[in-house]
Design brief:
A hairpin with a 7-residue loop joins strand 8 and strand 9. The protein is α+β, with helices and mostly antiparallel strands and about 325 residues long. The strands form five sheets. It has a five-stranded antiparallel β-sheet. It has a four-stranded mixed β-sheet with strand order 1-2-5-3. It has a three-stranded antiparallel β-sheet with strand order 13-14-15. The protein is globular, with a radius of gyration of 20 Å. The protein folds into three domains: about 100 residues, Uridine Diphospho-n-acetylenolpyruvylglucosamine Reductase, domain 2 (2-Layer Sandwich), CATH 3.30.43; about 130 residues, Uridine Diphospho-n-acetylenolpyruvylglucosamine Reductase, domain 3 (2-Layer Sandwich), CATH 3.30.465; about 60 residues, Uridine Diphospho-n-acetylenolpyruvylglucosamine Reductase, domain 1. The model has no long low-confidence stretch (mean pLDDT about 95). The protein binds flavin-adenine dinucleotide (FAD). The site of flavin-adenine dinucleotide (FAD) has 32 residues, from strand 3, helix 5 and strand 12.
């Protein structure tokens, strides 16, 4: 191992930091914990600390510690849009749970309102909203994220998460009490501050006939099942669609389907998916992403932009 590699992989937490995290979270703080099981790609090295945080008070305490000690930290949602480096993530990885998993969905005269914690599963939110007739919620069907990650990514299909957001609550290291923010939403990104942890979001939908909404939803799920390689670990579409085109179409036309680097393979079923065929590393996956990008640029002069977020140590 090179010196660069050794230093990129060395924990930045002191014994006192570890003790404080263990005192605050008990068994819900684990150390040098592998992240691969927490990502959809099943790839990634260890976190110095993996912290399951269940209340706003606990989140405030962890963010205050990070602020005071200038420790790096990262909030992990469902891990469905992430490539975690083989060297893992230095500092504290926060995974919200407990109070943050609640969903309160109600139909009323003005439509359907859903108040959801950031760790609530988007598929569950979609199912509950559809059964109340939330119009447009079908456009979020089959996206396997959490509410917080989907807000950060402005996830969606023909309609996007941000279109339905009414209120957002966050906590940050500099302002660790829950407070409201109003981000703007763009194609697969938002103006949400980098250091903001989304804790809750209120979504608002017009209401329609629940049977009709569930029917459209079901059709979308079937279409996705028939066009996406859901039997293998992946992070969904790897590249953003360039203006007026589809990344998948360009990748396929450039002849990249089936390309492989170790255990990582460009899916034969959907060219914008890279699947883990078994034991793929982050280095292999990153190398394959770079190869696809280069091939498309050489063939069509289009520089594809990554949709998946790279995080952690890649040395
Ligand atoms: C099979 C498959 C199909 C997919 N289909 C689609 C699709 O149709 N459309 C689409 O847009 N995406 C799709 N995705 C990608 C992914 O599901 C979405 O981007 C999802 O919204 C990410 O949510 P997550 O909770 O998994 O976030 P993660 O992958 O865990 O994190 C993504 C980013 O959000 C940040 N984040 C997570 N939680 C919070 C929080 N509480 N506060 C602040 N920041 C946070 C993370 O730090 C990270 O930067 C697909 C993925 C898979 C595996």
């Amino acid at each position: 191992m090179s010196l660069t590699e050794i230093s990129a992989r060395a924990s930045v937490l002191t014994g006192a930091d570890r003790e404080l995290l263990a005192q605050t979270l008990g068994q819900r703080a684990s150390f040098d914990a592998p992240l691969a099981p927490h990502t959809y790609w099943k790839i990634g090295g260890p976190a110095d600390a993996f912290c399951i945080v269940e209340t706003s008070a606990e989140l405030g305490a962890i963010l205050r510690l990070a602020f005071k000690r200038t420790l790096p930290w990262f909030v992990l949602g469902s891990g469905s849009n992430l490539l975690v480096g083989d060297g893992g993530i230095r500092g504290i990885v926060i995974r919200l749970a407990g109070d943050f998993a609640r969903i309160d969905a109600r139909a009323h005269d003005d439509g359907v309102t859903i108040v959801a914690g950031a760790s609530a599963s988007l598929p569950l939110v979609v199912a509950q909203g559809a059964s109340l007739g939330a119009i447009g919620i079908d456009s979020l069907a089959g996206i396997p994220g959490s509410v917080g990650g989907s807000l950060r990514m402005n996830a969606g299909t023909d309609r996007e998460f941000g279109e339905f957001v009414r209120d957002v609550t966050v906590q940050t290291p500099a302002k660790p009490e829950p407070h409201a923010v109003t981000p703007q939403y763009f194609y697969r990104h938002t103006t949400l501050a980098r250091d903001a942890v989304v804790t809750h979001a209120t979504l608002q939908f017009a209401s329609g006939d629940p049977v009709a909404v569930r029917d459209v939803l079901q059709k979308r799920l079937v279409r996705r099942k028939n066009s996406q390689p859901l039997q293998y670990p992946s992070a969904g579409s790897c590249f953003r669609n360039p203006p007026g085109d589809k990344a998948g179409r360009l990748i396929e036309a450039a002849g990249c389907k089936g390309l492989r680097e170790g255990g990582a393979e460009v899916s034969e079923m959907h060219a914008n998916f890279i699947v883990n065929r078994g034991g793929a590393t982050a280095a292999e996956t990153a190398a394959l992403l770079a190869r696809v990008r280069r091939t498309v640029a050489e063939r069509f002069g289009v520089e594809l932009e990554l949709e998946v977020h790279f995080v952690g140590a890649f040395v």
